[in-house]
Every structure is written in C-alpha cells, then in structure tokens.
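Fig. S4 source data, part A: sequence.
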Amino acid sequence: MEAVGTPEDDPPYALASGRIGAASVSFFGLAAAAPAVTLITLVPVALAAGSGPLVPLSFVALAVVLLLFCGGYAAMARRSPSAGAAYTQVARGLGRPAGLTTAWLAVTGYQAIQFGLYALAGAAATPLAQSWTGVTVPWWAGAAGCWALVALFGTMRIEVAAGVIGLLAVAEAAVLVGMGASNLLQPFGGRITLDSIRVDDPGLIDRPVLGLLLAAGVLAFAGFESTGNYAEESLRPKRSAGLGGYGSVVLVALLLGGLSWTMIVAAGPSRISAVADARGAELLFDLADERLLPWAVTLGRLILITSVLAGVLALHHAMARYLYAMGRDGVLPGVLAGTGRRTGAPRAASLTQSLIAGAALAGAYVAGADPGPVTARWMILGGALSILLLLLATSLAALLHLNRVPGDEGAWTRFISPLLSTVSLGSLVYLAFRDLPQILGLPAGYPLVRAVPAAIAGCVLLGLVHAAVIRWRWPVRYAGIGLGGTAVVVTPEKEKAPEIRIPQQRDPGVHRPERAANRRSPGPG
C-alpha cells in the first residue's frame, strides 16, 4: 500500500521547533495589533464622536469577549498545534471548504492591514525627516525602507525576529505608558475626576453609537490571533500559542484602555470631544507636547514608526506561515513549504510575501498614489473586518469540534466559552457591517463602502471555488487539508486489498479532516 499525505514534491525540511516561548508569542500578537496605530487613527475619531468614557470601557468589554474566544482557540491549538492556526482549526471544525476560505480571509486581511501600515510608515517618516534633516522625504521612501527591513528579518531564524519584535514592542509600550503617566500627572483642571470614567445615565447611551464603538473597537485587536501561527516553533507547542493569545489580549487592552482614558483626563471630560475633533490624529502628540519636553514628543513620533515596523514584521511572519501551511497541505504550490536548512524559517513563503508587498508598493508609486493617515485607516479597518470574520469562524469551529470530538476539556472550555464568544463575535460582525460607513468615516453611497464587503465576499468565493477545484482535481490533497501534512489517506492496491477504499465525498462526515480515516466497505454478502 502507498501512504499519501502531502504532495510528493514536498520539501524535506520543517519549521524549527522549540525556538520561542509564550512571552515571545505574546509580543508577536501585541505587535500585530499595533496599539500605537489605533491610538492615533481610531481613538481620536471615537472621542470626537462624543463617546467619551465609553471608549476605554469598550476596550475592557471587548477584551472580555476576546478572552472568551481564547478559551476555545487555546484548546484547539493544544489538540493540533499548527502553523496554519485558524485555517487548520476551521478545517477541523467546519470542514475543508470553510478552512480554505478562512485561510484566504487571513491572508488578504493581513495584506490589507500591512499595506495600510506601509502607508502610515511613509506618512510618519516625512515629518521626522523634515525636522531632523530639513529634507522632504516622499512617502514611498519610508515605506520602502520599512519593506527592506521586513524582507530581511522575514527569512531569519524565528528567535531573531522574536527578539527584534519583542524589543520594539517593549519600547512602544514604555513610551506609551510614559505619555499616559504625563497625562495623569498633569490632568485638566489639576485633578482627576470620576467624570473621566463614569457614565452618568446608562439609559441615555446612544445604542447606535455604542454598537459602532464596539464594532470599531474590536477591529483594533486584529492581529492578536496570529499567535497560533507559531505553535510549531514554540517551546511548548500545545500551550505557548494559547498562553500567547491570552497575554496579547491583556496587553493590548491595558494599553488601549489605559491610554484612551488618560487622554480624556488630560483634555478634560467635558472638552475631549471638541479637542479630539480639532486635533484628529495629532491628539496623542499634542497632549504630550503640552506636558513633555520636545525630545520626548519626537521620541513618541519615532516610536510610531517602530510600532508600524513591528506590526508589519509580525503580520509578515503570520502570512508567511499561512502560505507555508497551505503549501505543505498541497493546496498551493509545494515550493511554499520550503524552509531554510539552517534557520528552519519558511523562507520560500517569506520571500513570496516580500515580493507581493514590494510589487504592490511599486505599483502604488508608479500610479502616483500619495496615501496618508486616512487612506491607511481605511485599509487597516477594511482588512480588520476580514479578520473579524475569521475570529467568528474560528470560534464556531471550536464550539463544534470540541463537542463533537470530546477530549479532556471541561464544560467551560468546551462549550460555554466558545458559545459566548461565538454569539458575541456574531453580534459584532453584524454591527460592523451595519455601521460600515460610520466606521470608515464615509458617506453610505461612497464606492469604498461597497468595495470592502465586495472584496470580503470575493475572498469567501475564492476559498469555496479553490476547495471545489482541489476536491475535483486532486482528491488526495483535498483529504489532507487542515492536517498539517499528516498522512491519513491510504491508496490501496486493489488487487491486494479490495476491501479497503478511499472515503468518497458523499460519505457522511468525510468533509471533516478528523473523519478522513479509511473505512472498510461491506464485504460481499
């Protein structure tokens, strides 16, 4: 008999194991969420809309929802640690077509966020270069420098990239905490009042505004779920990814919730809406400029660039591992599963991702594009919507799989936590698409408002069509989707074992990877 799992031309090298711990995984998730970018692009808009204390409170509420999500996510990662992360988990829980669809949602969503961060890097580099050298640097120069660094670190050993990202993430957190401390030490009016955090009459809360705030706020966490991509390379494959997910959610919530509250304290609870509307993306820096020395404000602007660099690098690694996992399963060219002989990094997938990003940046330059913070915000939010759908699919997959194939998880991890997160994330998906014009800050009839859902629908269609083609053209590869290269299908020689057959697509449950084991057909008579 011939055992078949991955394509015959799969490379002989695998990802290096035992390279990073849970703390490094948490920093990957924190960097991918890019809290400094959210504080500059999203929080001022929410404060200007009159949300006030609801902004920090919403980050706390969303952290609770995402911690519920992490329960099922960590349990699924313990059962099957894989670089495919959500792709693998959804394939096991909802079937192979849903798994491939999730993979494409992840890749395209991360790409959109990454391009938005590149645009933000170019926009942030211009004023710094102008103040330091007096030379006007075009946006594409800053973006190109960021791209070159990401392409370089993308092919290095994972612990090297983890060290760089950890250093940048710690520096970002330290600077943000310093700015927040200055806001608290010099509050508006000389004292901190309960009005900065108190909602006087919950019954008067504008429910559409609250829904908009929750939907937009959860998009600020997009990227934390990429912690699952490093399960195979962690010291404890069955635990590090889950612990990293919990850690990144807590860190992002503390930074976003804490810093947004200190901004209210610094500007004054009664003035924050007008101040945020007047200063926009400069709100964080203007508040710091009133309280800190000029060099500290310049350091804050520099940390924005390093935050963008860390975010792009973290997203690059996540996308490279999705491409690697899909190449290993045979649904994309097997060359993408190639790893460095010495580094153990997914070198082929990383170089492919670098070429895609470089081609996109070159195309934007040739087309004469001049993206700024507003364009970056549109792209980041559009990509985050795709990731929000990924979270919903992953939560539902965990709920179904953990209960369909019972393990040693308790009732909370197996049922209650995934159920609560699925309902909560489903509500947030509804609110996000219902309030999409307000989230993007555009009129309802604006073309971009229609383009974002159309692009996401295109990703879903791409995943379903891709799965159908693989199933029709390469049924053996289709049977291995979501299994990380594990050989589960046996092609018998009929003359030696006529009683063994490959499961057919119409066999009950064969669309789920855990049921892809061979079955014996009934004997004669």
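Fig. S4 source data, part B ends here. The first helix runs from residue 22 to 33.
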